[in-house]
Amino acid sequence: MAGRFFFAWRMLAAAQAQDNHNYTATRNARARASFEPLIDLTERQFRARYRLSKKVFKYLCRELRRLTNLRSSQRVSMQHKVLTALFFYATGSYQKPIGAANNISQKMCSVYIEQVTQALTHKNILQKYIRFPDTPAARQAVSQRFYRKYGIPRVVGCIDGSHFRIVVPRQEEEHLYYSRKHYHSLNVQMVCDDEYRILNVNSKFGGANHDSFIFENSDMKNYLKSLHQNGEIVWLLGDSGYPQRPWLMTPILDAEPNNIYNEKHMRARVVIENTFSRLKNRWRCLHKDRVLHYKPLKCSRIILACSVLHNIVINFGIDNIEEDMDLHLRNEDQENQVNYVERGEATSDLILGRILRDQLIRRLQ
């Protein structure tokens, strides 16, 4: 008899729990339906909350629907999924406060952030929005803009690395991510143009790797080298942490004060430092005071997703989207910069790189 009563009690408790779950889901669905950010928030409130204008948000949703597999579910629209992810990217707050803000459970917040991140890093999206100039005419257009602004010819971009904090990885791979700054990170290499647009991202290396190692093992280096081999003489600007190469111009170490080349080089190269600062300050999940609490691969995808959003905002011509965003245009990774040291005998690439740099210096004088 007691066994039957206990079984009946368990069945009743399970039914009540299911009813509570259904009630909560229905209540949250109604709450989401009753709160429509595109209608209930002013333009300024929407931008402050999601870092995009309403116009850009609608465009983003159309692009994700057209180019990826991201779709609405039975209870949640695709727009609410995107808003949930944008709120996370923009604030750096984790799933529980985001769920409270959008009437979505913590578990489902995590699911939607993952879905939107995968959509933003879909190959169709990346090929369209993070794209190094792939024709001579496109590269010439970038180099002409750099020359008009900074007086250095043949520049097709500026390159640098920046550390993005991540939670401590698994023990067997932890050493790959422990940086010289004494925290775990991804050292992300980016190339940008004169308009702070990100042209290339390499986010697969841990913080223990130096900028020069990442560049020497990157597709970007191989692509630029192939351009030179085919007679197209263009280059990137990089700091002293990189090796001097025919396709990568670096500063002259121990140069005399007021060196014209170094001054022009420094003024032009500041765009990559500002690009990192704008990216991290707009999308606060990447901010230097935040830590991404995910495995390195997912952290890498989040950085890529935010880079796509960064470029979309620039493409719409509203880069300074919120006056109160407190943009500190300084890349903290420039502190205690480790200069590149050429090991062994000088290579042909180093010799040719120095010859081209000397020719550039004479031209600028």
From TrEMBL:
InterPro entries: DUF8040, HARBI1-like, HARBI1_dom. Residues 1-17 form the signal peptide. Its cofactor is a divalent metal cation. GO terms for cellular component: nucleus. It comes from the Eukaryota. GO terms for molecular function: hydrolase activity; metal ion binding; nuclease activity. Residues 42-121 form the DUF8040 domain. Pfam families: DDE_Tnp_4 (PF13359), DUF8040 (PF26138). Its main location: nucleus. Keywords: Hydrolase, Metal-binding, Nuclease, Nucleus, Signal. It is found in: Nucleus. Residues 159-311 form the DDE Tnp4 domain. Belongs to the HARBI1 family. This is Nuclease HARBI1. It comes from Euphydryas editha (Edith's checkerspot).
